[in-house]
Structure formats: structure tokens, C-alpha cells
């Protein structure tokens, strides 16, 4: 399965949702920006954006929730070892209260993988970060990035946007 995402204004992306009601587009807000995301095997309908292969998943993405994306740039010749190492890790995330969905996304045109989790709320995500399961899943990480990182990983977070959400009301 493939996943597609793009950034844009909420008005523009809502028009895409209306134009493609069969795609199951999800809108997510971050401050004043909006991200559109969908999954399927069809062609990308975005004029610009990113395309991924879903290489691991758990749970179903919900219309409501808090989404965290770990963006991890990986060197081309290190992709296989990165994927194998990631797949071998014990996650424990899916047993946490408030967990909704997980996606491990391989980039098709650039170097940045995305590890996406969706939570019922930001508080549920914070509880995961402070849990023993999180500590166990991340205990073997060194203080310096592994050699296969092409650049420093970064995190983005979003609140799912519902039709009745007002612009800028992302920190509910």
C-alpha cells in the first residue's frame, strides 16, 4: 500500500477532499498549516507532496486524534539496515492507552522515512513518552545519531481536523 501527503492551506485542501471523496483524505493541523494524508494503491492526486510505501502498520487511522511523525533522513546505502533494525525493535506502543494507529513509511523519492503514530489525545502521547514501554523501546539508542542517518531526525505533530474546527484551533 502507498501513502501520500502534502501541505497546503486548509481551504485548498478542503477543496481536494470535496473533489476526491472516495480517497479517504485526512486533514491534520499544525499551527496555521494543514497537512493532507491518504493511503491506497492508486496514483498520487497531489500536484506536489510526498509519496511513501507503507512497510509496517497497526491500527486504523481515526478522524479524531493527535498525530506524531518522526521524520528520519536515512542514507541511500543504509536503508536496508535501518529498516531491519527498526522492524526488530520491540515497540509496545500498540498496548498503550489512547493508541489508535501506527505507520512505518518508506520514502519513494527522497531520503526521509516517517514513523507515524496516532493517539486519542496529546496527553496519551505524553503518557507513552513517559512510560516504561517507551524507555524499553528506546534504551539501545546512543546519544549520537547512528551512522545511517543522513541528517538529524525531527518530529512534527498534528491534530486531526474536523469540518467544524475553526482555523487556528489546533491545541484542543
Automatic annotation (TrEMBL):
Keywords: Monooxygenase, Oxidoreductase. It comes from the Bacteria. The lineage of its organism: Bacteria, Bacillati, Bacillota, Bacilli, Bacillales. One of its GO terms (molecular function) is monooxygenase activity. This is Antibiotic biosynthesis monooxygenase family protein. InterPro entries: ABM_dom, Dimeric_a/b-barrel, Heme-degrading_MO. Its EC number is 1.14.-.-. The keyword Cell wall biogenesis/degradation does not apply. The keyword tRNA-binding does not apply. Residues 66-160 form the ABM domain.
Amino acid at each position: 500500500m502507498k501513502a501520500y501527503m502534502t501541505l497546503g492551506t486548509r481551504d485548498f485542501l478542503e477543496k481536494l477532499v470535496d473533489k476526491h471523496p472516495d480517497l479517504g483524505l485526512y486533514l491534520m493541523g499544525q499551527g496555521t498549516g494543514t497537512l493532507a494524508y491518504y493511503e491506497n494503491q492508486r496514483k498520487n492526486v497531489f500536484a506536489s507532496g510526498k509519496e511513501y510505501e507503507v512497510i509496517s502498520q497497526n491500527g486504523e487511522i481515526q478522524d479524531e486524534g493527535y498525530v506524531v511523525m518522526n521524520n528520519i533522513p536515512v542514507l541511500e546505502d543504509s536503508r536496508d539496515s535501518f529498516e531491519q533494525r527498526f522492524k526488530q525493535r520491540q515497540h509496545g506502543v500498540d498496548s498503550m492507552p489512547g493508541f489508535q494507529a501506527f505507520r512505518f513509511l518508506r520514502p519513494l523519492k527522497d531520503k526521509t522515512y516517517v514513523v507515524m503514530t496516532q493517539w486519542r489525545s496529546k496527553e496519551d502521547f505524553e503518557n507513552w513518552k513517559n512510560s516504561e514501554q517507551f524507555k524499553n523501546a528506546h534504551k539501545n539508542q546512543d546519544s549520537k545519531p547512528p551512522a545511517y542517518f543522513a541528517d538529524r531526525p525531527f518530529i512534527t505533530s498534528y491534530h486531526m481536523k474536523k469540518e467544524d474546527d475553526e482555523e487556528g484551533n489546533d491545541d484542543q
